[in-house]
Design brief:
This protein is mainly alpha-helical and 100 residues long. It is built from 3 helices and 2 strands, in the order ββααα. It has a two-stranded antiparallel sheet. Helix 1 packs across helix 3. The longest helix has 43 residues. It is rod-shaped, with a radius of gyration of 26 Å. The model has no long low-confidence stretch (mean pLDDT 85).
Length: 100
């Protein structure tokens, strides 16, 4: 005789315990995804703050001030545009600083 695999169904109906576990798992995963999204957003905010603080410190040294003036002359100002997300602005500002 061949063995039949249990599919979680009894007489054509899904096992209610299995269904509840699956639904609970789906809710947990949705919550985790929302939390990870929030954490990622907070992380980008923190990175942007640190980058802006670094630029602020550069502006207080003669060499840093000259470097920022040179970048502004070569690449233009790097200002946040209306509607630009934090992540987009962080990437643009990081690229502006990394360019040579």
């Amino acid at each position: 005789m061949a063995c039949m695999k249990s599919t979680g169904r009894q007489n054509g109906k899904m096992n209610p315990t299995r269904k509840m576990k699956r639904e609970d798992l789906e809710k947990t995963l949705e919550y985790q995804n929302r939390q990870e999204g929030l954490l990622a957003g907070e992380l980008i905010e923190e990175k942007l703050s640190q980058l802006q603080a670094f630029i602020g410190h550069l502006a207080h040294t003669p060499h840093g001030r000259a470097e920022l003036q040179l970048r502004t002359k070569r690449f233009g100002d790097c200002k946040r545009l209306a509607g630009e997300t934090t992540g987009e602005f962080y990437g643009k500002l990081r690229h502006w600083l990394d360019r040579t």
